[in-house]
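Input (structure):
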């Protein structure tokens, strides 16, 4: 069973950086593709980034491409989201999730993810 716990959220100013972490409690971590989603108040949860099981390939939403970097450390059962040049529009609750999808590149919707963390709040002030 996968149990995901996010950390690293907080209140920052526009232009600042944050690194989110998402730790799994089990040894099956490396068998899942991993992703980050976010949900702003009054909006649908949206895809942010994903990474393959090996960590070699990653995918990003257009809105964060070039500013955010997803990575993973399978030895530590942890996936990260490095967020640079933050904007007020990045304000949201950020969730990590695990997917059984074989082709992680296609895993961009909530329905394709099997396990979720509880979320961590990121607030970017202008």
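Output (sequence):
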């Amino acid at each position: 069973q996968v149990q995901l716990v996010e950390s690293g959220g907080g209140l920052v100013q526009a232009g600042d950086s944050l690194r989110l972490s998402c730790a799994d409690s089990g040894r099956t971590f490396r068998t899942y593709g991993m992703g980050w989603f976010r949900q702003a108040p009054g909006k649908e949860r949206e895809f942010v980034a994903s990474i393959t099981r090996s960590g070699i390939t990653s995918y990003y939403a257009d809105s964060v491409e070039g500013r955010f970097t997803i990575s993973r450390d399978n030895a530590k059962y942890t996936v990260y989201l490095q967020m640079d040049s933050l904007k007020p529009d990045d304000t949201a609750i950020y969730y990590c999730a695990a997917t059984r999808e074989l082709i992680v590149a296609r895993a961009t919707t909530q329905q394709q993810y099997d396990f979720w963390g509880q979320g961590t709040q990121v607030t970017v002030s202008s």
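Notes: The chain has no helices and eleven strands. The mean pLDDT is 96.
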